[in-house]
From TrEMBL:
Its main location: membrane. Keywords: Cell membrane, Disulfide bond, Heme biosynthesis, Iron, Membrane, Metal-binding, Oxidoreductase, Transmembrane, Transmembrane helix. Pathway: Porphyrin-containing compound metabolism. This is Heme A synthase. Signal peptide: none annotated. The chain crosses the membrane at residues 12-30, 112-134, 141-159, 171-192, 204-224, 251-271, 283-306, 312-330. The lineage of its organism: Bacteria, Pseudomonadati, Bacteroidota, Flavobacteriia, Flavobacteriales. It is found in: Membrane. Coiled coil: none annotated. The keyword Chloroplast does not apply. InterPro entries: COX15/CtaA_fam, COX15/CtaA_HemeA_synthase. It comes from the Bacteria. The keyword Glycoprotein does not apply.
Length: 342
């Protein structure tokens, strides 16, 4: 059973990273409000594909929550009913939750696919928790971690609704990202603890402290990065020329850029220390590769005016970096009692 748990945890974390990619694409394309409601999209399980789908239709059956657009405003059906020959707004509730009242089929389907990814990812995570229940007697910590993942996914789903209702308030988007990192951490814990491997490496306190510091630096960088992204979004709303979005950047941009140097130096120090002791921690090799790619994508974004896919890749690399650092921390901090196999 523990073998199945281990594989399910791996599948689950891949799904979470796919969700992060999908979410980054949503943010990059400005599709966050592609669906004005949640969990449905324009009141439908399968969203509309053209504007005629959300225009008033006489003698048509509408379900509660279905959306129509009238005079550049969205109206939600407040009950199940069949329309007459003309529009009667008494059966409709005007959208007052947010200012978004535009229909863009591309944005709608990008947001819908993002939600679909999230729903699909919930399947292996739910199965992971069910399997963990059978491990409760001997591995209670695995059941607790799997339950926290379920809670995290539920919180992210609820927060996703409030993000839509709030018209994409930046601080809620930042909390949304923090929630995904928490889920990654719990899943990595599940992966590691379901297959503990003894290590002869006994790091000194300085190494452990610097490792923790590097992880905190990454989290700070991600948070500041969301502030930079908020600034860019605001610039994009008033100017379609990407070359001007960072012409006069805010303070968060300079802090983010400067901290990237410190992040690289700290992780390079960790890498050098392990090489000196000839410790085969391959994950630190991957960390240096990811850091290099992260810096390159940041340079490309700034100097080449936000090429398509670079922003999602930049965010994905940050999430991968956090995952690698957290897993190494588990290896360094844990004291396995036994060796287990697949």
């Amino acid at each position: 059973m523990q073998k199945h748990f281990h594989k399910l945890a791996k599948i689950s974390i891949v799904c979470v990273y796919l969700i992060i990619i999908a979410g980054a694409v949503v943010r990059m394309t400005g599709s966050g409000m592609g669906c004005p409601d949640w969990p449905k999209c324009f009141g439908y399980y399968i969203p509309p594909t053209e504007i005629s789908d959300i225009q008033f239709k006489p003698n048509h059956s509408y379900k509660e929550g279905h959306v129509i657009q009238v005079n550049d405003l969205f109206y939600f059906a407040n009950k199940d009913f069949t329309t007459g020959d003309s529009l009667n707004l008494k059966n409709w509730q005007k959208n007052t939750k947010h200012e978004y009242n535009s229909f863009n089929p591309t944005h709608t389907w990008i947001e819908f696919i993002n939600r679909l990814f999230t729903a699909v990812a919930g399947i292996p995570i739910l199965i992971l928790f069910i399997v963990s229940v059978f491990l409760w007697k001997d591995k209670k910590y695995l059941t607790i971690a799997a339950f926290l993942v379920i809670l995290g996914m539920g919180f992210e789903a609820w927060l996703g609704k409030t993000v839509v209702d709030s018209n994409l308030l930046p601080y809620k988007i930042s909390i949304h990202m923090a929630g995904s990192f928490f889920i990654i951490a719990m899943l990595l814990y599940c992966i590691y603890k379901s297959k503990e491997i003894k290590s002869s490496f006994k790091p000194v306190s300085l190494f452990k402290n610097v490792l923790i510091f590097s992880l905190l630096l990454t989290l700070i960088q991600v948070y500041i990065g969301t502030q930079v992204r908020q600034f860019v979004d605001e610039q994009a709303m008033v100017n379609s020329n990407a070359a001007l979005w960072l012409e006069n950047p805010n303070l968060a941009f300079y802090i983010h850029r400067t901290l990237s140097i410190l992040v690289f130096i700290v992780n390079a120090w960790l890498f050098i220390q392990l090489k000196k002791q000839r410790v085969p921690y391959k994950l630190l090799n991957y960390i240096m590769i990811v850091l290099g790619l992260e810096i390159i994508t940041g340079i490309v974004i700034y100097y080449f005016n936000f090429p398509f896919t670079t922003q999602p890749l930049h965010l994905l690399l940050a999430a991968v970096l956090f995952g690698l650092q957290f897993y190494i921390m588990l290896q360094v901090m844990s004291k396995p009692k036994s060796q287990t196999t697949n």
